[in-house]
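Lecture notes, unit on protein representations.

Consider one protein chain, 96 amino acids long.
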Amino acid sequence: MSRSRKKPSAPPSRLVPAILAAAIVVTGFVTLMIRLEITQEGYRLSALRLQIRDLDNRNQQLRLELAELESRPRLRALAPKYGLAPASPAQVVVMP
């Protein structure tokens, strides 16, 4: 009986585990960078929302100030100071 000799198997390659480990590290790094970018954009968005709220408040204040400055009683009180008076009937021209 002759037995056939088995060839010794080649040692397992270390390339595949190294590539897998590198892929895991790269994937982890990319995930971390994406999360960091999302967090930074969240902070930026919060700051922009705060700025919008402040600008809305300022806009409301300016509209109130404008309404006060354009009020009829205030303008009537200031008119004599600048030599302004209501128009006389002769100064009014009605277009047909």
